[in-house]
């Protein structure tokens, strides 16, 4: 899988050389290329921002360096005059990708599937979830564009949508200084789902959010530590009872901290 990342802080991504993703990169399972947006500037100061039209605080990233950088990555395909979708959000994760969330114009149609995917992290985007991570892990090429300042000139999304599938994706309901941390989180979340990245693929199946619930508590040796015992059922060797206990723990934990995840689940009815 190929991943291109556009940023004004390429050094942020040096951590992708570490740990499981670092190994995956060195084994050729994931090909990450980081591009410095400032390399596409033409002035002495390598400027990438300017004041917002209409006034307001802060600066906005100018479209030209974005256009040049994305042209170089995606190929400077001639804009399709028929494709001019508004860019306000993305197709919902749980829906087929050609169905937009209500009130949100979809940027994706059936014919689009062969187009590259370009993801712009944004607090105004659709939430990034485990379902998004799974979907991204099935892509062959994703380009990420890291915003800074007050964000990127909106026309960059519109221009990119003429030749790629564009998604605005949020890491959560808070505001970061830039898209770099969001991209790192997303790359780690889908990168570990790529075949061969995590040694034991079964460990991926039993994790929080994979079955819509939070994971059960885990224990290892010693069986007694500082007077605290491992639950007896886990020492019983009785697989069915262990599975039942774990499922109960999942429901209990999810009910305590994320009751929203239980809506409509028959196994969680009280
Ligand atoms: N003015 C923007 C707004 O209110 O929506 C926030 C801009 S933020 C200071 C700068 C950049 O950080 C954004 O363009 C985006 O790339 C990134 N960012 C901030 N919060 C984020 C979040 N929750 N999820 C994903 N990216 C985020």
Automatic annotation (TrEMBL):
Sequence ranges assigned to domain tRNA methyltransferase TRMD/TRM10-type in this UniProt record: 1-74, 114-262
Subcellular location field: Cytoplasm
One Pfam family this sequence matches: tRNA_m1G_MT
EC number(s) per entry: 2.1.1.228
A molecular-function term among this protein's GO annotations: tRNA (guanine(37)-N1)-methyltransferase activity
Any GO CC annotation of this UniProt entry: cytosol
Record bears the keyword Secreted: no
Keyword presence, Transferase: yes
EC primary class: transferase
Reaction catalysed by this enzyme: guanosine(37) in tRNA + S-adenosyl-L-methionine = N(1)-methylguanosine(37) in tRNA + S-adenosyl-L-homocysteine + H(+)
Keywords annotated in UniProt: Cytoplasm, Methyltransferase, S-adenosyl-L-methionine, Transferase, tRNA processing
Classification via InterPro entries: Alpha/beta_knot_MTases, tRNA_m1G_MeTrfase_C_sf, tRNA_m1G_MeTrfase_TrmD, tRNA_m1G_MTases_N, tRNA_MeTrfase_TRMD/TRM10
Binding site for S-adenosyl-L-methionine: 147, 171-176
Main subcellular localisation: cytoplasm
GO biological process: tRNA N1-guanine methylation
Quaternary organization: Homodimer.
Name listed for the protein in its UniProt record: tRNA (guanine-N(1)-)-methyltransferase
Organism of derivation: Pseudoclavibacter chungangensis
């Amino acid at each position: 899988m190929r991943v291109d990342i556009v940023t004004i802080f390429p050094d942020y991504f040096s951590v992708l050389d570490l740990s499981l993703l670092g190994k995956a990169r060195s084994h050729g399972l994931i090909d990450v290329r980081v591009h410095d947006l400032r390399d596409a500037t033409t002035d002495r100061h390598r400027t990438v921002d300017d004041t917002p039209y209409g006034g307001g605080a802060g600066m906005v990233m100018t479209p030209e360096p974005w256009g040049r950088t994305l042209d170089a990555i995606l190929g400077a395909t001639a804009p399709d005059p028929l494709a001019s979708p508004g860019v306000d959000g993305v197709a919902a994760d749980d829906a087929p990708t050609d169905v937009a969330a209500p009130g949100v114009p979809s940027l994706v149609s059936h014919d689009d599937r062969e187009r590259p995917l370009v993801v712009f992290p944004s607090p105004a985007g659709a939430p990034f979830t485990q379902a998004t991570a799974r979907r991204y892990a099935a892509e062959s090429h994703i380009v990420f564009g890291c915003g800074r300042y007050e964000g990127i000139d909106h026309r960059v999304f519109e221009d990119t949508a003429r030749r790629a599938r564009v998604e605005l994706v949020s890491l959560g309901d808070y505001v970061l200084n830039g898209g770099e941390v969001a991209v790192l989180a997303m790359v780690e979340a889908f990168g570990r789902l790529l075949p061969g990245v995590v040694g034991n693929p079964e460990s991926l199946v039993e994790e929080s959010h994979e079955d819509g619930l939070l994971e059960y508590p885990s224990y290892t040796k010693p069986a007694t530590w500082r007077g605290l015992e491992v639950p007896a059922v886990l020492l019983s060797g009785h697989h069915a009872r262990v599975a039942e206990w774990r499922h109960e723990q999942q429901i209990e934990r999810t009910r305590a901290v994320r009751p929203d995840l239980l809506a409509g689940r028959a196994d969680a009815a009280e």
